[in-house]
Every structure is written in structure tokens, then in C-alpha cells.
Amino acid sequence: MSAKLIDGNALAASIRNDVGRRVRRLADLGLTTGLAVVLVGDDPASAVYVRNKVKDCHEVGIVSTLDRLPAQTTEAALLARIAQLNADPAVHGILVQLPLPRHIDSHRVIEAISPAKDADGFHVSNVGMLVTGQALFRPCTPYGVMKMLEHAGAHLDGAEAVVIGRSNIVGKPQALMLLAEGATVTICHSRTRDLAAHTRRADIIVAAVGRIGLVTADMVKPGAIVIDVGMNRGADGKLCGDVDFAAVREVASAITPVPGGVGPMTRAMLLVNTIEAAERAAG
Ligand code: GUN
């Protein structure tokens, strides 16, 4: 059996279309939709990510601004810029690209963003809303994974789901979103004693660690759905995920590729969060 491929590029394109329609509907009422992106320092990967985010905004008609601040920017200066963006009615979403330079406390920066404009859903208030089932903004990567599972026709209610990774950006919010849909969720991580014992029971596996070859075919139950959040550079310089794609696709019922899987969905869900914020602001 060869697994069905869950095409992140195609699904993201249809989500962008829908966001574009909603942006135009607000524009017809005389309202623009705005996202402010802030990048501190010159990490090349982060520079590519934010450039793509700004390009996506342009494509759907969201007005985006990009602040490129030097690596030596002080925390106080960054907090002052965030305060300006919080007060700017043309800005509906604010995204500060992570990681930040080490001299800046990223928790303090995230908590300075108005929860109503926190397009990443990282603010403790938004995390609390997600935990209690009242989510305002959902973190983009796990939100995109949920859309992919829905598109694949996954039955989450009562399913065994294993999330590998416990980050604040992916693993923890992913587990909460699966739980909210009725899955029985296990979170595995670098200290998990027998990872394969957990994954072999899973109907759904979400791998979000950042290690090439972490999930092999013998770790996957036949018919499981496998979502690969990993984004790694192989020895050949090519982009690859955490899952041994060629072997696992012979066991799974559905699988996401890397590239062309979760990556484009993360970008699309940022647009969704931004238009939702603008629609809320418009009442
Ligand atoms: N760095 C890696 N992923 C993300 C993300 O989703 N949002 C932000 N702000 N920074 C990131």
C-alpha cells in the first residue's frame, strides 16, 4: 500500500484564496487588514521565513510592514516598538520572528504583544484560552496540521494520537488541539524511554523534533496518518523532515511530504489568524 499524499501546497493555496476573499470583503467596507512583522538580527533562515510571510500577505491583499532591526537592538527598544504597533489601529496582527538574539528575553517580548493582535498565538493569555477551549489565536503550525488532518478525513474522536516534540510552538499546542477533538494524546520527547512502543499504537503521528530519520517504517502502525513537521537539511543539502518518507509511505494510509507539506500550511494559517483578527476588530 502506498499512502495518500496530503498536499500542503494545494491546501494552502485554497486557504489563501479564501483569506483573499475575506480581505476584499473588508476592503469593500473601507477597511484594510494589516500584519506587522518584526525581525531582529540577521539569522539567514529567519530572513527567508519573514520574506515569505510578507510575500504571502501581499498576495492576499493584507498590508504588511517589516521592521528589520539590528542584532544589537535592546530589549527596551523592541518593547517600545511593540507598544507602538499595539496602539496602531491599522495593525491587526503582530509577529516577532523567533529566535531572538540571546540578550533579549523572548518571553517578555511575547507577553508585550497585545493578546488581541498576537497572530502567532504565543502569548500566555492565548495559550490559556487554547487550554480552556476558547482559543482566540491558534499557533500556526499545529493549526495547519489540524487543517491537514481534517482534509485527509482523519477521525480524531477516540483516536490514539502521538505527538513527538514538546515545544511551545508546535508540540504542546498540537497536543491540546488534538485533545480538543477527542483524541487520546501522548506527548513523546527526547527523554521518552521507548518511542516506538508509543508510536506503534498511534492512529495519528505528528513528528516535530527536527531529527532526520526519527520515524522509521517499523515504528508506524499500518494505516496510520503521519504528519511530518520536521524541517532539516540532509547531507546532500536537500530539505527533509523527521520521517523516513520513502519507507513510511508504504505503511501509512496518509502522509505529508517535506517540502510541500506542513511548511506552506504554517504560512497560510498566519494569514487566517490575521484576517480573523481584522474581522474581530471590524466587529
Ligand atoms: N520561528 C519558527 N517558527 C516560528 C513561528 O511560527 N512564529 C515565529 N514568530 N517565529 C518562529
Commentary on this structure:
This protein has 283 residues and is α/β, with parallel strands linked by helices. α1 runs parallel beside α10 and α6 packs across α7. The protein is built from 10 helices and 11 strands. The relative contact order is 0.17. It is globular, with a radius of gyration of 19 Å. Helix content is 42%, strand content 16%. β5, α7 and β6 form a beta-alpha-beta unit. It starts with a strand and ends with a helix. The model has no long low-confidence stretch (mean pLDDT 98). It folds into 2 domains: 86 residues, Rossmann fold (3-Layer(aba) Sandwich); 124 residues, Rossmann fold (3-Layer(aba) Sandwich). Strands 1-11-8-7-5-6 form a 6-stranded parallel beta sheet. It has a 3-stranded parallel beta sheet with strand order 3-2-4, with helices on both faces. A two-stranded antiparallel ribbon has the order 9-10. Guanine binds next to β4 and α6.
Q: Summed up, what is this model?
A:
The protein has 10 helices and 11 strands. It is α/β, with parallel strands linked by helices and 283 residues long. Guanine binds next to strand 4 and helix 6.
Question: Keywords for this structure?
Answer:
283 residues; alpha/beta; Rossmann fold; six-stranded parallel β-sheet; three-stranded parallel β-sheet; globular; binds guanine
Write the layout of secondary structure elements.
Elements: E1 4-5, H1 8-28, E2 34-40, H2 44-60, E3 63-69, H3 75-87, E4 93-96, H4 106-112, H5 124-131, H6 140-151, E5 160-164, H7 171-180, E6 184-188, H8 195-199, E7 204-207, E8 225-228, E9 232-233, E10 239-240, H9 245-248, E11 254-255, H10 262-282
Parallel strand pairs: 1-11, 2-3, 2-4, 5-6, 5-7, 7-8, 8-11
Antiparallel strand pairs: 9-10
Bound molecules: guanine.
